[in-house]
Amino acid sequence: MEKQEVLSAYGIEDGIISDRPYGTGHINDTFVIEYMHGEGSRKKILLQKMNHKVFKRPEAVMENIQNVTAYIREQAIKRGGDPRRETLNIILTENGKPYCRDLTGGYWRAYDFIEGATAYDRVEDPECFYQSAIVFGNFQRLLSEYPVENLNETIADFHNTAKRLEMLKKVVAEDPCGRASGVQEEIDFAIEREKEAHVLTEMAERGELPVRVTHNDTKLNNVMIDDTTGKGLCVVDLDTVMPGLSVYDFGDSIRFGASTAAEDEQDLSKVSCDMILFEIYTRGYLEGCAGKLTKKEIEMMPMGAKLMTFECGIRFLIDYLQGDVYFKIHRENHNLERCRTQFRLVADMENKWEIMNRIVKKYAK
Ligand code: ADP
Ligand code: GN1
Ligand code: MG
């Protein structure tokens, strides 16, 4: 019922051919709707119910996305590219709004469905990972002149690793679901690394790392790769575009894509950080950024990878302790299993620290 009402806000009353859940995102409810659009032609849209619990100010999220996509679209047009495939395109409601509300207060939005492209959940082929690096690097480059102060901070302290650790301590002390005693090993792992958690945010505070327009959720499955050419097309999932650190964007891609196992792999012996993939991504990201990063930012890329992985592990652990209220889960202990893969990756990066730094140095010019 809810969805019908939303679709009619977009002028889609009948002629619906299919409506199915889509993707493997942990946050929003995503659907692909195919419908008859005019005489004999079909159209696909990506309809999403935004997660209102995560995004407290959906209007502010949509304002960021409108501004950033308009900016990228303009650049695509200037250089003769295809703006329908080089950025997300928001579909406005019949009332001209970038989102609509249902009767229960939920927020929905629609995008043109990007056809003939795939967002991969795993690196099936190193070239695809390289392409994703170019796309995220390009994103950084394209937005390097965008006035960062004009963006809303849609989730406060989203990538503040030190604050995430403080939060973990608080949740452990409160232990709302009585789960803390079963995960002492993971809690200790986090606390032992307390000092390091501050490194990047403090560098930013001292002005040693610039605050830029960043994506903040640079997983491989947030990039579209063209099915025909194999080339990277564009970045999707722009909900968390806001002021941030480039090294965290780099790091999030590494934690997800350079891992030899899935984010929720149960067999930890399969989890490690692949140095070949790390090198491929480093090369592609710096190529895409095309000289826009400072020397210090490049130097701190390995730290971005380690801390972002650490932070993500902390977030999964917090959610496990709080009773799985933030990330979608598909089985019992899912968040704990995710936390364990992240911490295993951190430990592996610590062992490979010198190699990671050597690789980054090789591409720092
Ligand atoms: P979540 O925030 O829940 O991760 P996303 O915005 O990433 O939601 O969307 C979920 C998935 O839908 C993406 O991983 C991608 O596979 C796909 N997707 C998102 N936007 C589009 C689009 N405009 N066209 C085609 N596929 C898309
Ligand atoms: C969430 O929405 P999705 O699945 O692309 C999360 C990211 C995490 C990621 C872990 C808004 O991303 O921060 O790194 O899960 N997004 C939000 O897989 O919290
Ligand atoms: Mg996503």
UniProtKB/TrEMBL annotation:
<dbReference type="GO" id="GO:0016740">
    <property type="term" value="F:transferase activity"/>
</dbReference>
<dbReference type="Pfam" id="PF01636">
    <property type="entry name" value="APH"/>
</dbReference>
<dbReference type="InterPro" id="IPR011009">
    <property type="entry name" value="Kinase-like_dom_sf"/>
</dbReference>
<dbReference type="InterPro" id="IPR050249">
    <property type="entry name" value="Pseudomonas-type_ThrB"/>
</dbReference>
<dbReference type="InterPro" id="IPR002575">
    <property type="entry name" value="Aminoglycoside_PTrfase"/>
</dbReference>
<feature type="domain" description="Aminoglycoside phosphotransferase">
    <location>
        <begin position="99"/>
        <end position="263"/>
    </location>
</feature>
<keyword id="KW-0808">Transferase</keyword>
<protein>
    <submittedName>
        <fullName>Phosphotransferase enzyme family protein</fullName>
    </submittedName>
</protein>
